[in-house]
Amino acid sequence: MGLPININQLLSGKIVEWERIDFKKGWNPEDVMHSICAFANDMHNWGGGYLVIGIEEENGTPVFPPCGLDIKSIDKIQKDLVNLTHKIDPLPAAIPQPIEYMGKIVLVIWVPGGEYRPYKTFTSLNDKNNQKAYYIRQGSVTKKAGTQEEQLLLSLAAKVPFDDRICHAASIDDLDLLYIRDFLRKIDSDITDDEAISMPFEQLCWQMQIIGGTPEFTKPKNIGLLFFSDNPEKYIPYARIELVRFYDDIGDHFDEKIFHGPIHMQLQEALDFLRSQIIVEKVVKVDDKAEANRAFNYPYAALEEVLSNAVYHKSYDDRNPIEVRIEQKSIIVYNIAGPMPPVTNADLQKERVIARSYRNRRIGDFLKELDMTEGRSTGFPKIYRAMRNNGSPDPIFKTDDFNQYFLAELPIHPSFIEEKNKDVVKDVVKDVVKDVVKELSDRQRIIVSLMNDDKQISAAELSQIINVNVRTVQREIATLEKTGVISRMAGRKSGYWKVNPDDALK
Question: Does the pLDDT value for residue 317 go beyond 90?
Fold first, then answer.
């Protein structure tokens, strides 16, 4: 059986934080029992953790090369592990996997965050009084929970995050093997494509912890439906991204695009659309510099971080989509359900926001494995940095007093505001010219149409084309000049006229 993560990525500390990995030089049943209990309690909603047995640690990080385990002891250790998990109440999941790493055998035990926390176990395997206690992780250390920590654990009872809950209305048949295989390939999982195809589908889903329940009544979890079903909205309404592009400040003219399907694919498709259809680069020549300034209307890195975090932190049990509003002077990403307490609106005005708890621990894990988010409270600094490197104004983040929504606004680069204003003026001018032309005689309309599109033409040429003497044409041109529809060319072209919407506007 393979792990849902590549061993090299696990031991690098890049995908899974060191706080979620407990390294042990050798097999110590009591320590292992306490660590399993702590990871199952998952007090910080990190998604559980991993015990790596056969690798020594120093200050919470692994020491290489690994010391390894005797291959003959692996079978006995796994049998002892079954007995140990039954000493924890309620029974947690603990999935062992022997792996050869750097020429040594190590045992990795994956412990997902428990669905039925809090968990407690014996303080000692040798204690005849059978005293039990709660255990938690504090940094890279497993410890017995104190009084306040016990109260917090009890408050978390039955509060399983939405993404890790079982969806009783769905069936395991709603999960698609093709999506699962694609995901495992992208994260370079130890579960090879051949193994994913050959092993029983239900076994694969159990290994990835995307199903739950009892063996006789297995159901998909919400995390499985969100990532590996064709239509997550069938069971999780409005699990989608809605993008609206406005063409004016009033909101009368707009179009919209809705992204459906697995949420990580929605995210990638929305980002691809923004990069190809919305983001524009502008080159501005500066008089005193040899090099021109280059800027984007919106830096992609900032948009990527804002939208990725919206998918990560959305409240999927609320029936509201993620909204992306592309307005004339900014892009706004809007989520119903704001940041998790104790984060407040005042905290959002700081450049670094430290979140103490997460709404969707499993979504965060999957997005981190796909390199689509980091989950280390680095999102805000990354957005600020991307905006400033582009010369853009600072981003704006908002919520209300009750954390009912979260709004992230990225203002457009200042040089693009000037460009948009020119476009607006140009459109207004065109409308004025159209209104003026409506009032002209048939012959005058012909003259305007012949002069249109910056064509230069003389009165003599016009008289020949419309079969009217030059004096008559000159009188018609004089009328058009007075109304501002056309203007006389200067310099050598003083005998010619052209349509000039700017004059018409004046």
Answer: no
Q: Is residue 391 part of a domain?
A: yes
Q: Are residues 217 and 249 in the same domain?
A: no
Q: Containing domain of residue 396, as a range? A: 241-412
In a domain, 333, yes or no: yes
For residue 54, which of 85, 13, 83, 21 has the smallest C-alpha distance?
21
Q: Is 113 helix (H, G, I), strand (E, B) or coil?
A: coil
Specify the DSSP element, H or E, that contains 107.
Answer: strand 104-111
Does the predicted TM-score (pTM) go above 0.70? no
DSSP sequence for 30-90: HHHHHHHHHHHH-TT-S--EEEEET--EETTEE-SS-----GGGHHHHHHHHHHHHTTEES
- Dihedral angle over CA of 414, 419, 421, 425, nearest 10: 170
Report the distance separating Cα 35 and Cα 135, nearest Å. 7
Residue 310 phi/psi, 5° resolution?
-65, -40
HEC string for 160-217: CCHHHCECCCCCHHHCCHHHHHHHHHHCCCCCCHHHHHHCCHHHHHHHCCCEEEECCE
Q: What is the pLDDT of residues 421-438, one digit of tens each?
A: 555 545 555 555 566 666
Packing angle between helix 29-41 and helix 74-85, nearest 10 degrees? Answer: 50
Indicate whether 214 and 136 sit together in one domain: no
Same domain, 353 and 408: yes
pLDDT above 80 for 452: no
Averaging pLDDT over each range in 204-218, 286-300, 343-357, 482-496, which range is the top one?
A: 204-218
Domain-ending residue, one of 197, 231, 265: 231
**How far is CA 397 from its chain centroid?**
16
The whole-angstrom separation of Cα 292 and Cα 273 is 27
Q: Decide if 348 is inside a domain.
A: yes
Bridge partners (DSSP) listed for residue 331: 326, 410
Q: How many separate domains does the chain show?
A: 4
φ, ψ of residue 386 to 5 degrees: the values are -65, -40
CATH number where 72 lies: 3.30.950
Does residue 298 sit in helix, strand or coil? coil
